[in-house]
Design goal:
The structure is a single chain. With 588 residues, the protein is α/β, with parallel strands linked by helices. Among the domains are: 145 residues, Response regulator (Rossmann fold); 108 residues, Periplasmic binding protein-like II (D-Maltodextrin-Binding Protein, domain 2); 99 residues, Helix Hairpins, CATH 1.10.287. 42% of the residues lie in helices and 19% in strands. The strands form 3 sheets. Strands 9, 10, 13, 14, 15, 16, 17, 18 and 19 form a 9-stranded mixed beta sheet that branches. β4, α3 and β5 form a beta-alpha-beta unit. The longest helix is centred in the last third of the chain and has 46 residues. The relative contact order is 0.09. Keywords: Cell membrane, Glycoprotein, Membrane, Receptor, Transmembrane, Transmembrane helix. Pfam families: Lig_chan.
């Protein structure tokens, strides 16, 4: 049986013709026929083309004029597609061709005409295009001989409408728009998903000899229940209205979008992340405190106080140092701190207790300082640890979070597609109103990341294209990223478009030939490689700020004490002058 259909519905002119058709269908040993029916023109024939059997075979005898009218209604109802395999019988094929010339037989239809001794495959590229007829077999009353069917891979320059989303790329009117979109040296970080999808479809142009005419929109478009359709002026709205067959920008798969379009085989994994310069431990206010734990520092300060108290106790005993030394507590503490800072002893004592205390104090300070100094040197010579490796740690860090200002990023944060993304938005990006959310321009955001203290969310290729051009080698080595989303994206084709199967096959050819991989490497920039730092990490002012603050406090205290001493001295001089004056008055 022709096409090995499992279901045959026949529109025959007489009962005898129906019996002959069934007899012929069941004679072959290889027949897969399971269901058959003979229909009349006045029956509810529409149910035939809504059958769930696949494929459905339908036989039309064009010798009856009413069958031609039924075929015309089927065509007008857009039911001539690959799901319905149709065989038309007309002994004089020229009569059938003349009638079918005025009927829309879509590019993806399965319509054949059975004439005297020959079978012809029929289709049109467009409703206004001429009918294309290819001989596909011969037959007689004894056997059927089928030839290899010619592939439908030449659209003869037909123009297919498409729609592409451009949000940031500014097209110049004096230059061809298509050339600007395909030029990957022209702002390659802008609208990568759209330009990559457009580039892939340009490969299909060469493969199938057609031409894409496209319009640009500002957004992909999302279904709005309040409106009952997709956002006006968007790519999916154009597909919904039938103004475009192809959605040329790579898109995410939503259930609402599946109602109006088909997604072709996936083209690219869409990966988003936060990028930031990891804060250096040498840029932290607590850098000097990092070598020791809080317990170690507490124990060290307790030892200093204890040593100061013991030294004061020894010096205030009846036996005096020879030569004499200051026995105050402040002098003892100053001596201990100097020893701990590896400055040695600046006093001299002949007392055995003082010397024993000093020796063991120096041993303790030597051991503590050795570990402290070794840790500080280690911070300078070893790679700095990058401990901000999750979105929770990034949110809790002092780093300010921003996101690239693109519409699909906003849907990521508000669409509940990932717990991580939602958490980042709610805790770090969300503002008092949607207009005040932390969304910024890509170039501005990268400049803020370069300065440090900022993390930017975006599509990795967009981010790294700009970073590769603007960051130095050492800045690239300091980069860290936290992956947020990894989703497949692809382009779409309108439902009931006759070019769906052709597009599917074309994309698979482009993928298998390696062209898709080549375009992917060209358009999607990978993370810049760290080829080694140009120099060692410098200690920033934050790390030394504690020492500077201590010095400023000391200077201020010294000035205060100086003014205090000056005031006391002034009072002493005044009192001394009064005493001299009184003495002189006594002897006058």
């Amino acid at each position: 049986m022709y096409k090995n259909t499992g279901t045959v519905n026949g529109f025959v002119c007489s009962l005898k013709d129906g019996k002959d058709l069934l007899k012929t269908a069941l004679e072959g040993n290889n027949s897969k026929l399971t269901v058959s029916s003979m229909l009349r023109a006045n029956e509810d024939w529409l149910n035939v083309f809504q059958s769930k059997h696949h494929p459905v075979g339908t036989f039309f005898d064009f010798r009856c004029s009413q069958h031609k009218k039924i075929f015309l209604e089927i065509s007008q109802g857009l039911m001539l597609n690959a799901s319905n395999i149709i065989l038309i019988y007309e002994p004089t094929v020229e009569i059938a061709f003349s009638y079918l010339e005025h009927v829309d037989i879509p590019f993806d239809s399965e319509v054949a005409v059975l004439g005297k001794g020959k079978i012809y495959d029929l289709y049109k590229i467009h409703v206004l295009s001429p009918l294309i007829m290819n001989s596909i077999g011969f037959w007689d009353e004894y056997k059927l001989t089928m030839k290899e069917k010619l592939p439908r891979n030449d659209l003869k320059g037909h123009r297919i409408k498409g729609s592409i989303v451009l949000t940031n790329l500014q097209l110049k009117k004096e230059i061809d728009a298509e050339k600007q979109i395909l030029n990957f040296t022209l702002d390659p970080q802008l609208d990568v998903l759209s330009r990559f999808g457009f580039t892939v479809h340009k490969q299909l142009e060469k493969l199938y000899n057609f031409r894409i005419i496209f319009n640009t929109t500002h957004d992909w478009g999302y279904y709005r229940k309040t409106l009952g359709h997709f956002d006006p002026g968007t790519m999916f709205r154009a597909i919904e209205l039938g103004e475009a067959d192809l959605g040329l920008s790579c898109s995410r798969i939503f259930s609402e979008r599946l109602s109006i379009s088909f997604f072709i085989p996936p083209l690219k994994k869409f990966r988003t992340c936060f990028v930031f310069k990891h804060p250096s431990t040498l840029a932290a206010y607590s850098a000097f405190a990092m070598p020791f734990t809080m317990g170690s520092w507490a124990c060290t300060f307790c030892m200093i106080l204890l040593a100061g108290l013991i030294l004061r106790l020894i010096r205030n005993f009846k036996i005096k140092d020879n030569p004499p030394n200051d026995a105050s507590f402040s002098a003892s503490i100053l001596l201990i701190i100097g020893t701990m800072c590896q400055q040695g002893l600046y006093v001299d004592s002949l007392r055995l207790s003082t010397r024993v205390l000093s020796i063991f104090l120096e041993l303790m300070s030597l051991l503590i300082y050795s570990f402290y100094g070794a840790e500080l040197v280690g911070f300078l010579l070893t790679p700095l640890p990058k401990n901000i490796n999750s979105i929770d740690k990034l949110i809790d860090s002092p780093i300010k979070l921003y996101a690239e200002n693109l519409s699909y990023h906003r849907t990521h944060f508000t669409g509940n597609i990932s717990e991580k993304v939602t958490k980042a938005y709610e805790k770090a990006l969300k503002g008092p109103t949607p207009d005040k959310d932390n969304f910024i321009n890509l170039t501005t955001g990268i400049e803020m990341v370069q300065k440090g203290g900022t993390a930017l969310y975006g599509q990795e290729s967009n981010l790294y294209t700009v970073i590769e051009k603007s960051f130095s080698t050492s800045e690239k080595c300091a980069l860290s990223e936290i992956e947020m989303l990894l989703l497949w994206t692809t382009t779409v084709i309108r439902k009931k478009s006759p070019f769906r199967e052709l597009t599917y096959k074309g994309i698979m050819i482009v993928r298998e030939s390696g062209i898709l991989l080549r375009e992917d490497l060209k358009w999607h920039h990978q993370r810049p490689h760290c080829l080694g730092k140009e120099g060692s990490d410098a200690v920033t002012y934050e790390a030394t700020l504690v020492a500077q603050i201590l010095f400023v406090i000391g200077v201020m205290l010294a000035i205060i004490f100086y003014l205090f001493e000056k005031q006391i001295e002034k009072r002493k001089n005044k009192n001394r002058a009064l005493e001299i004056l009184e003495f002189q008055c006594m002897y006058i």
